[in-house]
Amino acid sequence: MRIKIVLSIFILAWIALLVRVYYISIKSNAYYEEIAKQNAVKVEELAPLRGVILDRKLNPLSVNRLGFSIGIKPRLSFKANRALLDQEIAFLAEALPEFSVKDLTKEYLKADSAYNHDYVEVIGFVPYDKLIPQFAKIAQHDNLRIKITSKRHYPYGSLASHVIGYVGKSNTQDVAEDITAKLVGFSGKTGIEKYYNTVLQGTKGEKKTKVTAFNQEIEQVSKTLPLSNDLVLSLDLELQQYIATLFGDDSGAVVVMNAKNGEILAAASFPEYDLNKFVTGILREEWALLANDLNHPFTNKLVNGLYPPGSIVKMGVGMAMMNSGIISPSTTFESTGTMELGGRVFRDWKKDGHGIISYARAIRESCDDYFYKASLKTGIDNIAPFLSKIGFAAKTGIDLPREFIGVVPSREWKKARFGKGWSQGETLISSIGQGYFLTTPVQVAKYTAFLATGNGVTPHFVRKINDKMIDFPVDPNIVSESEKRFLKVTREGMYDVANVPGGTALRHINVTAPFKIAAKTGTAQVVGLSQTDKKRMREEDMDYYQRSHAWLTTYGPYENPQFVVTVLVEHGGHGGSEGGPIASKVYDKLYQMGYIK
């Protein structure tokens, strides 16, 4: 009996062993074969080359400069190999004197570890022409590796800097948003470079190679090339350069936009700054100089500059008041130069007033008193909703990052913001674009396009991605047809501003091209002015940073609106005198270049 038990155990043990051998050798063959393949095939990701940015005539605005990066063999920081590391770094510093031993050592030690099997990059970029004389000498060192690479370059430095934007080294947030950012090492930080970062970055490729146990390549299994995408903008380089010359040292913003489809031919935020300084990291001293500049060169004033619109909002306010049915284009008010309400005096820019005045003339002469009295009769509840409809306090949809929306003051807005009720005095100052009212230059350009065409356009810079045209929506129903019925009289008022005696821009607009333009000036106060002074202080007598911002927004030709030109000069004082000459020359240039037929 005992023999039978022992024999049974013996047989069962052999059966179990045979089953296990069968499972490992036959059933698990596919599993272990796959593991073997993974061990034998090396997968290498191929970084795409960042796409270039071109203007509408294919002039380069953002390109890649060819160069080289240099890496040092890993794990040389260990004690046994440290002398070899120091030797290689000393050699590099001698061959390329612009790189110091201290900086190269710091870069290597920061990235080297026992788990690192790739060469440690210590020099991210050396221009092609600088490395070529030393190429053969460096290539002879087995511990050094030279790789072809590229560096973002902006051929025109500061031109259109806030629109184009710049790239910088990818951070943890960039990598979290897009894993390709870790592979390429750079991401768009501002402007078009950031807004279209995923497009410009392209799609990574992949190379599969058979390798030995010692990581030596045997043969290439497959290769998928990376893909790049180029952008063609609506900007015209020649016009952009011309406007930068016109603006000179002033601070502010300019937008030149197609009134019919929203294409932006030129746009700038002044002062501008050199984009090339940010690609690999700006010096601390240069950063401090820019950061402390009171004219705020880092602020993209096109979409992040919030300003009271001043009198340029009067057309929108006027249409809102007339749409209420409470007043009409023929309704008149007596402008005496001042209006008293609740113990406060609200002044007109014209000391003695404008006399008996109706809507179109109030636009022409920018009569504050008319809007005080008309808005008091109409009420903020009939004004604010229409202003929101035509684009204020809303994103325009422009293809730039972090667009601000501004403020259209209203009863509801003030209650939510401050927990307080609305006062009639706030209706008065809102009607002339002051008080809580805030807008951006791009919003004003979109609003002006509505006044010119009756449509809502989407301001934009990109025309093509590679060879594919990109369409941006035009909304003919931004307001109802009934709400558009006062556009005609509004346009007549804007025509008078630039072409009829009494117009606030008449003396300052001098378009020599064979057409007329429509315009509206605006003076946006930066500081409150005493209402007790009998005579308002002149802008030129005030400290520079207390002077009002100067607005001028225009469209032309008047009979066939094709372009909008909006100009903001910070602390310029008067919109007509500051913006008029700039806008006039821009229209002449548009005609000269063939944009206006």
Molecular shape:
elongated
Distance between termini? 115 Å
What share of residues is helical? 25-40%
Which structural category do the helix and sheet elements fall into?
Answer: alpha+beta
List the total number of helices: 21
Low-pLDDT segments = 529-534
How confident is the prediction overall: mean pLDDT? 90
Strand content: 15-25%
Number of strands: 21
Largest sheet: 7 strands, mixed
Radius of gyration: 33 Å
Describe the structure.
With 597 residues, the chain is of the alpha+beta class. Helices cover 36% and strands 20% of the residues. It is built from 21 helices and 21 strands. Strands 2, 3, 4, 5, 10, 17 and 18 form a seven-stranded mixed sheet that branches. It has a five-stranded antiparallel sheet with strand order 12-11-21-20-19, sandwiched between helices. A hairpin with a 6-residue loop joins strand 20 and strand 21. Helix 15 (368-378) packs across helix 18 (424-431). Residues 529-534 have low confidence and may be disordered.
